[in-house]
Design goal:
Structural class: mainly alpha
Oligomer: single chain
Number of domains: 1
Strand content: under 5%
Number of helices: 3
Largest sheet: none
Distance between the termini: 108 Å
Order of helices and strands: HHH
């Protein structure tokens, strides 16, 4: 006759079904679905990407595009000013 002290403690664990596949904890979508909202924000803030090291050729191309953009802005500004003054 079991006494109160000898009874098995029941836990609030889900029943284990041998047919149910185990969740893949390496799947980021599954892991994110388990997290609370503040945990998701904290996890995303921790995964920032640093600056990528660009080759000399790529840096030259980007600087060339920047210079081209500035020149085109100046040309457009001059054209707008001339158009406004020519209309009067």
């Amino acid at each position: 006759m079991p006494t109160e002290d000898n009874r098995a403690v029941t836990r609030l664990e889900p029943q284990k079904d041998p047919d149910t596949p185990k969740p893949d904890l390496k799947d980021p979508h599954f892991v994110l679905s388990l997290l609370e909202a503040d945990q998701v924000v904290a996890a995303k803030q921790g995964s920032r990407f640093g600056r990528k090291k660009l080759s000399l050729k790529m840096r030259m191309i980007l600087w060339g595009l920047r210079i081209y953009l500035v020149i085109m802005l100046v040309i457009v500004a001059i054209s707008v000013v001339r158009a406004l003054h020519g209309a009067h």
